[in-house]
Amino acid sequence: MSHGDRSVNALAVLEKSAVKSPGGLMKSPSFALSDLDAYRRAFNAYDHLKNGTVVASDIIHVANRLGYRISNSQMADILESNGLTDSSSLTFESFLDLLPRNKKQISDDEHREAEIREKFRKYDIHQTSSLSLRDVQFALQSELALSPQTALSLLNKFVRLNYDQFIEFYKKVEEKKLEIYEKFGKFDADKDGMISEAEAHEILHRDLGFTEEMTKALVKRFDCDRDGYLSYVEFGDFYMVFEESKAKIHQAFQDFDEDGFGYVPNARAEHILGEILGYSEEKCRQAIKMFDKNKDGNIDYEEFIDFYAMVEQETERLAREFHNFDQDKDGLLSLSDFQKTLELKGHSDDEVDKLVAGCNFSSGFLSPSEFRRFLSTSASGSTH
Known about the structure:
Blueprint: H1 3-17, E1 19-20, E2 26-27, H2 31-45, E3 53-55, H3 59-65, H4 72-81, E4 89-91, H5 92-98, H6 108-123, H7 133-144, H8 148-158, H9 163-187, E5 195-196, H10 197-208, H11 212-222, E6 229-230, H12 232-256, E7 263-265, H13 266-277, H14 281-291, E8 298-300, H15 301-325, H16 335-344, H17 349-357, H18 368-377, H19 380-383
Antiparallel strand pairs: 1-2, 3-4, 5-6, 7-8
Helix pairs in contact: 1-6, 1-7, 7-8, 9-12, 10-11, 11-12, 12-15, 13-14, 16-17
C-alpha cells in the first residue's frame, strides 16, 4: 500500500467519523468547543499586535492554516464584497463571518474539504503526509471521545483491504519477517537458537544506551516461559520495542540537531537538560562533560545515545516523584499535596516551611518546571 493509498484511506476514516450538518458541512457534536478552538488558534497566530484583530491581508494565510484552498483573486472578491480592503482589521467574530460561516462565497464542499484537510494535518503528527493506523485510532478517540479499546474496534470496522492492497500489505509482512529473522541472528551471538541476557545487553547498550538493569527488565518483560532467554517466538515483540526505541532516539537527535550538522553542540545539550530536567547551569555543564567523551565540544550520535538514555531515565524518575507528591492523584501539585508529602518523607515543620518558601505557588499549584527545579536543587526532595 503506497503512502498515497494510506492517506486516502485515513481521510476516509476521518470522513466516516464526522457528523454532517443539515447543510452537508462536516461538523462534530462539540463544534463550539473544538472547531471554534481551532479557528481561534489559527486567528491568534496572525494577531501580530496581540490586540484581538488580524489584518485582512493575512486572512488568506489563516484560511490556508485551516485547510482552505482559496486563491488570491477569490479572497480579494470576498474582501471587496464585504466592504474590506487589505489594510482592514478584523475581530474574531468578523473573521468567523468572513470565512467559516460564509456560505455565500464559499461552497459547502469547500468548507467540508477544508475541515478534512485541517483534521488530516492535525493528526499527521510526524508530518509524513500519511497517517498510521495508530494515528487514525487516536483521531477516532479524539473526534468521538472514545476509549482506546472502542476506537480500535471501530477502526477494525472502517478499514478494509481489497486484494491489490493486501498484496502490497503482505509484501511488507514478508520483508518484516525476513528482517526479524536476520536481527535474531545478530542478537544470538553464539548461534544456539536462544538470546541470553548478556547477548541482548551487548546490542541494547550499544544502540540504546541501556544499563544492565534496563536490559534485565526488558528481557524479563518478553521472556514468557521465564527460562532467562528469548526464543525466536518471544523475540518478535522484543524486537518491535527495540526498533521503536531506536527510532525515538534517531528522531530526538534530529530534533536537537537543529542545524543538521550531525551533532548537538554542548551549549544546546545543556539548554535541553535545563528545560527538560530542571537542572542548574552547573549541573548541566557537569553532565554534558561526562557525555562528551572525545571532548570536542559537541555531542555526536554515538554520544547522544547515552545522553538520551539518561534523559529518559530521569524523565521517568521525575514522573514517579510527581505521582508520589500528587496525594489526591488529580494531576496537579497543590500546596497541600506538597506539604503533606514532605511531612511523610520525615521533614520537620521548619524544613517544610523553608522548602515551600523556595517554590512558586502563586497560581495555587506548583508547575512541572518548578517541580523539576525543586527536585534538581533539593536533594531532600527526592531522597528522604
